[in-house]
Amino acid sequence: MKEFLVKEKTYQIEKAFLSPYATFSEKSKGRAREEEPCAMRTDFQRDKDRLIYCKAFRRLKNKTQVFFSPQGDHYITRLTHTLDVAQISRSIARALSLNEDLAEAIALGHDLGHTPFGHSGERILNSLSPFKFEHNVQSLRVVDVLEKDGKGLNLTFEVRDGILNHKKSGKPCTLEGKCVSLADRIAYINHDIEDAVRADILSYNDIPKEIVEVLGNSSKERINTAITSIYRNSYGQSDVRMDREVEKASERLRSFMFERVYRSSTAKSEEEKAERMLTQMYRYFIEHCDKMPETYVSLLKDYPREQVVCDYISSMTDTYAVYMFNAIFVPKGWNFSD
After folding, report:
1. % of residues, the chain, pLDDT over 90
2. What is the pLDDT of residue 26?
3. Residue 258 CB coordination number (10 Å)
4. Which end of the chain, N or C, is less surrounded by CB atoms within 10 Å?
5. Sign of dihedral through CA atoms 303, 134, 75, 215?
């Protein structure tokens, strides 16, 4: 069949142009459940498509990045962050002659397990559940278990590994996974600066001079500095890393952002309300599991109720969490007739 020649052509292009340290599509460790191969797409390309079309990916558009339910059209959401990470990951992978399809697939799935209200929601669920709640672990659970009504997406080992290990503390088994881990930090530091300036929390002139001198004074300059540093220190190597000077400046910028933005009174002003809301909903659904959608109720036969309640709440968008809280706890008005 001519269709098979399309995929074979991709395999041949990878063999001809990718680094020996790249992850070759033809040599993927495969899926937990065997499937009929696609005639035209590699397994990593199929994973990318599955992630783009899954429900959890669509919900990212209404999940907090830093500021809860921002009203402006140009604030970053978890979806726009994910797209930023995907783009930067591909840029790094392309520069290093690594597998762009794998890097993009990992990036598209890396934050699917994030809660409503960003990292605040993650901390709240972690404090409520007897099981440790981490968004990277939950992202893997989304693609393994929760999507497709409990069947999961059955992604390849390499994509699943990259999703689980995308945090700074993680150790991805592929260089493409390392690209995503670095791209995640490059993306959120830079677009969160833009949001903080937009929210009048800081100005560009507030960024310490010693950081600006190394990284640059705009998102474009800082991202270019980071990718260039990664290229110079990683091309033809079995690792993906920045040089020490750029890495230290990036860490100082990250610390600056935690001090001035992530822990600011503006960013944290609504967290207490979010904590009360998610806490009450968690306790309610623990006592009334049958009130969750059938997809989650059906999971109770295989998983503890605390886990399934976290599955449901973490899947909510900011707007849906507020709607559900109101539906459960806020009395409806009566319509009195004459």
Report:
1. 82
2. 97
3. 11
4. C
5. negative
Q: What percent of the chain has pLDDT over 70?
A: 94
| Cβ neighbours for 204, distance < 8 A, ≥ 6 positions apart | 193, 197, 217, 218
CA 148 → CA 75, 102, 154, 308, distances in Å?
30, 22, 10, 16
Question: How many Cα atoms are found within 13 Å in the side-chain-facing hemisphere of 148?
Answer: 11
Least confident of 91-95, 201-205, 234-238: 201-205
Amino acid letter, 219: S
Q: Are 106 and 89 in contact (CB under 8 A)?
A: yes
> pLDDT tens digit string along 6-55?
899 999 999 999 999 999 999 999 999 999 999 899 999 999 999 999 99
Residue 138, token pair as written in the block: 């939950």
Instruction: Give 200: exposed, middle or buried? Use CB within 10 Å, 0-12, 13-18, 19+.
Output: exposed
- Of 92, 67, 116, 31, which Cα lies nearest the Cα of 315? 116
Provide the CB-side half-sphere exposure for 237 (13 A, CA): 11
The interaxial angle of helices 305-315 and 118-128, nearest 10 deg, is: 170
Q: Residue 264: is its pLDDT beyond 80?
A: no
Q: Which tokens is 338 given?
A: 């004459």
H or E element, residue 297? helix 294-297
CA distance to 61, 174, 252, per residue, from 29 (Å):
32, 12, 38
Task: Write down the pLDDT at residue 69.
Answer: 58
> How many other CB atoms sit within 10 Å of the CB of residue 23?
25
- Nearest in space to 262 (alpha carbons), one of 84, 123, 126: 123
